[in-house]
Amino acid sequence: MGIRMRILMVLGMLACLTSVAFAAEGTATFYTPPYVPSSCYGYENRGVMIAAASDAIWGNRAACGRRYRVRCLGPTNQGVPQPCRGNGVEVQIVDYCPPGCHGTIDLSQEAFSQIADPNAGKIRIEYTQ
């Protein structure tokens, strides 16, 4: 294999690693069933480990189908001082959270419950694609 090819392969691997390692912070809320219809999949049921994207990640429907790993970082208010359960959850974007959405990602009730106490209502999160 030529030296140029090796350099290109290494650069490609580095680019992949940096994109995977990037984690963003935001907030998460949750919504309750029914989850269909959705903006991305209409009446197709995509399960319960799903989420709606706010304008911050929606990208004019580009977020449809993306998978995000979401982890609770802590509370956003004084209601539940320690809402995090210590778990992360992987969700698929299936819907749009319209303007006025109170979180970066609006998780399904089931997904939110995996990572935090639903009584918190809104939590600080870290998410990666």
Automatic annotation (TrEMBL):
Keywords: Secreted, Signal. InterPro entries: EGC1/2, Expansin/allergen_DPBB_dom, RlpA-like_DPBB, RlpA-like_sf. Gene3D superfamilies: RlpA-like domain (2.40.40.10). One of its GO terms (cellular component) is apoplast. It holds the Pfam family DPBB_1. GO terms for biological process: systemic acquired resistance. Residues 1-23 form the signal peptide. Residues 26-129 form the Expansin-like EG45 domain. It is found in: Secreted. SMART domains: DPBB_1 (SM00837). PANTHER family: EG45-LIKE DOMAIN CONTAINING PROTEIN, EG45-LIKE DOMAIN CONTAINING PROTEIN 1-RELATED. This is Expansin. It comes from Parasponia andersonii (Sponia andersonii).
